[in-house]
Design brief:
Distance between the termini of chain A: 25 Å
Structural class of chain B: alpha/beta
Largest interface: A-C, 45 and 44 residues
Shape of chain B: globular
Shape of chain A: globular
CATH topology of chain A: ABC transporter involved in vitamin B12 uptake, BtuC
Distance between the termini of chain B: 41 Å
Number of strands of chain A: 2
Largest sheet of chain B: 7 strands, mixed
Number of domains of chain A: 1
Number of helices of chain A: 14
Order of helices and strands of chain B: HEHEEEHEHEEHEHEHEHEHHEHHHEEEEE
Oligomer: heterotrimer
Radius of gyration of chain B: 22 Å
Strand content of chain A: under 5%
Chains: A mainly alpha (306), B alpha/beta (399), C mainly alpha (299)
Helix content of chain B: 40-55%
Strand order of the largest sheet of chain A: 1-2
Structural class of chain A: mainly alpha
Largest sheet of chain A: 2 strands, antiparallel
Number of helices of chain B: 13
Order of helices and strands of chain A: HHHHHEHHHHEHHHHH
Helix content of chain A: over 70%
Chain lengths: 306, 399, 299
């Protein structure tokens, strides 16, 4: 894991500056765009902590998001936000701790669909519970404004990237990678495979929980089905895969690419944007199989060689 | 494609007007600038199949207004151009779209999106920028909690009133026992929450009361239970998706109860096509509009919709969309584009619409009654309340 | 209650639901089994098949019965074209070490295709709901009422599933496909033309999806975005039954149909989805490789 060169440090600083200056310079719409990008920057690296490093691809990442949102909604105007948001992260992490043990015994594509099924199970369980309690929908009036939400999300994005960077470079991260290559071999070499998987799973859950909690503040009307949206899980995977690579840079590339592309498309080509998006995805996968990181590395190598 | 055609047409119109102005030496600078009206509509995602009835109505209106020379803006006519974005069936996206329309695209007027969650989601944005919007396809008791000011809700199909009125109608039809089947989604769940206590108060026996999740694929078990209960009325509080499922499976199992109420779905032209016209006959659903001679423009609206789209309008959503447009038109004709004046007019005037008079107190429409319609010989007739009825309730004779 | 459970009515419903799930899952299983690719666009193929049947019926008056084989063939042709155009190249370059990347990339590729199919359909056909009434007469056999089109779906879907299962166990080409599913490298050593098998599984996979769409169009309403629930159902079924295991898939589909009807009858409609997903999750936690697990060699 090479230390980031001056190029990367410069880019990182520019990124931080952009995030800090946007609310000052931009109008409401641009800040909203920034919030969206920050949200994906918080969700995707946390997913990578488990799924990229261990190879256990989760298609149920939205379950943590939804649990966090639900906690904020049911404690609305009873718990102060500085309590509810971290509690949301804790709830998500607790859920991961609870199901992680048995769930992580399942491997490969079975794990993928298991996580999906788990997210749907939680969604429908909450739906059944809400209706048993006589609840139709929940309204949140008096939510903090866009700027407050923006700063909270910026903090979460920073935390998520920091988490991935730290795990990626640590001995724990190396252990995770070893079990990705060959779980049985890693175990015989003394890597505490079961414990490591579970820790990664729990770590990957806390931040999405808080992201869900914060995003709940943006929508005044809470409907269970819409918050546990499978497309969130799919988008996270798409962004990570588009970015490629193993560390922090991949998700950043992937998020910026897909989020900004989608933003540009829906604003400029309102009717065709989804078709364009689909086409770009297809072309991208065929031409850039190593993700954006791979593209960048190839370009750099070509530059160095030629 | 329509959006681009709209722009092209307006551009041509503007050029033509400018040429005319130069030729005649008069300045039409204000009049030839198109009036930009923005809104979001779910064109992709799970709700995309529900929005056409509203979007079609908006398009029909724009066509008619432009054919008349344009929308009357405080005395001057200006051609209407739409700025439409797809909210992808996500209320958060609708929030962003309205923020963009107001602060980035700087549109002249706004129209409402489709659906309750979307109306409620954008209310704070409208409040913040003091931009009035006449809502239409939103119905929830939660609407009353929205701060009155910049959004109004035109419909009378509010769940608590539906509970009272439906019970009254059942009582009038001498219904002694009912079965209630409800989708857990907000609108139908709200109706269930209000109708059941009303039924109990009226001494009507609720023999079956069950709920189901929105992704249900088979209702056989629940409907067998309903069949065995042998009730006078079945209240299928369904959303459009499961309304068709209910009808088809009720037909298969032979649920021949004389009073069949299906909450949402049958008001759309799609329903009889999906279940067959014979099966649709007799179904009672929520709507408060039908072409009536007493309501000016109602028949004309119906005819022009059928002519342009080749099918009936949605008696609930399309009518509401049209009403909200009429209200906006009147307010803008009177006040031009001054938002505070428009707001004051909408908040206090009584409007004439294709559904009769409409007046808002706070956010709610207090004149239009909560009503029900029934399919009779392939056409929807208002069967409740009596003072606006266009037909009498007829018992359903099987599917 | 007991008489409800024992009556044939619930069984009929369970079989209809189960058979349609089974047909949808079949193609998914074959594509995964032979190529280890998760086709997340599978449900959208079902949707396109439904549209084909709808337009054939409403514009040309062609009954879905006649349209079915044509639409299935068109689906198969589409599958072969896609294989030749996009996937063959991708699959040829794969080595055991890059297999993981293939899975990820194929996921993205199918996802992109899914977006394309849904939105081109929305642009071309409008997002409106579509449905038509065909063969919707109800008749009784004993104390079971059946709608004619539901019985038809049961027979056709069930028949095709059984036919494919027989094909895989009796016909030479089917055995070759099973060989590729179970042990890919060994199969190619023994002389199986892996490229041909892959092409065939794309053809059968896409063809059965399109056929499922035709059948579905008689029963339900659909729109350009109603494919996703079928994709989900398909995945639940093939995972539950064991990946690449066609018989397992059939049984899993039937099981889900049974939970949907009998499970609800025994509890309440409110718990329908909780039961379905709950059973799936619990079953997988107990049987990590599916109910009828046969450990496949993963590349």
């Amino acid at each position: 894991m090479d230390r980031p060169g001056p190029l990367w440090v410069g880019l990182a600083l520019a990124g931080v500056a952009a995030v800090a200056l946007l609310p000052v310079l931009g109008n409401e719409y641009l800040v909203g765009t920034g919030l969206t990008v920050l949200m994906w920057l918080a969700l995707t690296p946390s997913w990578c902590v488990l799924s990229r490093l261990t190879g256990y691809v989760s298609l149920g990442h939205v379950v943590f998001y939804g649990l966090g949102a639900y906690l904020v909604v049911i404690t609305w105007q009873q718990w102060p936000l500085w309590l509810a948001v971290p509690a949301a992260g804790l709830l998500a992490a607790a859920f991961a701790a609870l199901v992680g043990g048995p769930a992580l015994r399942v491997r490969g594509p079975y794990f993928v669909i298991l996580t999906f099924g788990l997210a749907e199970l939680v969604k429908f369980s909450i739906m059944a519970a809400e209706s048993a309690m006589g609840m139709a929908a929940r309204i949140l009036f008096g939510a903090p404004d866009l700027l407050a939400v923006y700063w909270m999300m910026a903090a979460l994005a920073l935390a998520s990237l920091g988490l991935l960077a730290w795990v990626s470079g640590s001995r724990f991260g190396h252990g995770l990678r070893s079990l990705r290559e060959n779980e049985e071999a890693a175990e015989t070499l003394g890597v505490p495979v079961v414990r490591y998987k579970l820790i990664a799973f729990v770590l990957s859950a806390a931040i999405p929980g808080m992201v869900g909690a914060v995003m709940a503040l943006r929508s005044t009307y809470f409907v269970v089905g819409q918050v546990f949206d499978p497309m969130v899980s799919v988008t996270v995977i798409a962004m990570a895969l588009l970015g490629g690579g193993d560390g922090v840079r991949g998700p950043i590339f992937g998020v910026l690419f897909l989020a900004l592309l989608s933003e540009l498309l829906w604003a400029q080509a309102p009717l065709l944007y989804m078709i364009l998006l689909g086409a770009i995805l297809v072309v991208f996968v065929l031409l850039v199989p190593d993700g954006l990181i791979g593209l960048f590395q190839r370009w750099r190598r070509k530059g160095a060689a030629g | 494609m329509k959006l681009m055609a709209t722009r092209r047409r307006s551009v041509v119109a503007s050029i033509a007007a400018a040429a005319l102005a130069l030729g005649s030496g008069l300045s039409y600078a204000q009049a030839d600038k198109p009036l930009r009206i923005g809104f979001s509509m779910a064109r992709t995602g799970m709700l995309a199949n529900a929005t056409p009835s509203q979007l079609n109505t908006y398009e029909l209106w724009r066509e008619q207004v432009n054919a008349r020379g344009g929308m009357d803006v405080g005395g001057t006519k200006r051609k209407v151009e739409f700025v439409i974005y797809d909210d992808q069936s996500k209320p958060e996206q609708a929030v962003r779209i309205y923020e963009k329309l107001i602060t980035d695209d700087k549109v002249d007027l706004l129209l409402a999106p489709w659906g309750t969650p979307f109306h409620i989601a954008i209310a704070p944005v409208l409040e913040k920028y003091k931009f009035p919007v006449v809502g239409n396809t939103a119905a929830s008791v939660a609407l009353r909690q929205v701060k009155p000011g910049y959004i109004w809700f035109t419909t009378s199909a509010i769940p608590d009133r539906i509970g009272t009125e439906l019970t009254a109608m059942l009582k009038q039809q001498n219904v002694k026992s009912v079965a209630v089947l409800s989708n857990v989604l907000p609108f139908t769940k709200e109706i269930k929450n209000f109708v059941e206590p009303e039924l109990k108060k009226a001494g009507i026996d609720i023999k079956v009361s069950t709920e189901y999740p929105p992704d249900i694929k088979d209702m056989t078990a629940a409907l067998t239970q309903v069949k065995q209960a042998n009730v006078d009325a079945v209240l299928a509080l369904a959303y459009p998706g499961d309304s068709v499922l209910y009808a088809k499976q009720a037909k298969e199992l032979g649920l021949n109860n004389p009073f069949q109420f299906v909450a949402i779905g049958p008001s759309d032209a799609f329903f009889p096509k999906a279940v067959g016209a014979a099966s649709a006959d007799g179904v009672v659903t929520i709507a408060h509009w039908s072409p009536r001679p007493e309501w000016k423009g109602s028949q004309a609206f119906y005819d022009s919709y059928v002519k342009k789209f080749g099918e009936d309008p949605d008696y609930l959503n399309s009518a509401l969309a049209w009403m909200s447009l009429e209200i906006l038109e009147t307010a803008v004709a009177k006040n031009g584009l001054d938002k505070e004046k428009i707001r004051a007019t909408i908040a206090s005037d009584t409007f004439e619409t294709i559904n009769g008079k409409v007046k808002f107190e706070g956010v709610q429409n207090v004149i239009t009654p909560t009503a029900f319609v029934q399919y009779q010989k392939g056409k929807l007739q208002i069967v409740w309340p009596a003072n606006i009825a266009t037909g009498k309730f007829e018992a359903k004779k099987g599917w | 209650m007991i008489d409800t459970l024992l009556s044939g009515q619930l069984l009929f419903s369970a079989l209809v639901t189960g058979s349609l799930y089974a047909l949808v899952a079949l193609g998914l299983n074959l594509v995964y089994g032979t190529m280890r690719m998760l086709n997340v666009a599978h449900g959208d193929l079902v949707m396109l098949g439904a549209y084909a049947a709808f337009w054939a019926f409403t514009l040309a008056g062609v009954s879905p019965l006649w349209a079915a084989p044509l639409v299935a063939a068109a689906g198969a042709a589409f599958g072969v074209a896609l294989y030749r155009g996009l996937f063959r190249g991708m699959l040829a370059k794969v080595t055991p070490s890059t297999a993981g990347k293939l899975e990820g990339n194929s996921l993205l590729l199918f996802f992109g295709l899914s977006i394309l199919m849904q939105n081109i359909a929305a642009l071309a056909f409008t997002p409106n709901n579509r449905a038509y009434a065909y063969l919707d007469q109800v008749f009784r056999i004993g104390n079971v009422s059946m709608t004619a089109n539901r019985l038809l779906v049961l027979c056709v879907a069930g028949g095709v599933c059984v036919a494919v299962a027989l094909f895989l166990s009796r016909h030479v080409a089917g055995l070759a496909m099973r060989a590729v599913i179970e042990r890919r490298e060994a199969a190619s050593i023994v002389g199986v033309d892996v490229d041909r098998v892959q092409r065939l599984s794309f053809a059968v996979g896409f063809g059965t999806a399109a056929l499922a769409g035709v059948l579905m169009s008689m029963l339900e309403q659909f729109s350009p975005f109603s494919g996703f629930p079928f994709t989900i159902a398909g995945f639940i079924v093939i995972i539950l039954g064991g990946l690449g295991n066609v018989t397992g898939g059939l049984l899993a589909a039937l099981l889900l149909g049974i939970i949907e009807t009998y499970g609800v009858a025994l509890t309440s409609a409110n718990l329908r989805s909780v039961l379905l997903y709950g059973s799936f999750v619990v079953a997988l936690l107990v049987f990590p490789n599916g109910l009828l697990a046969r450990r496949l060699v993963t590349r």
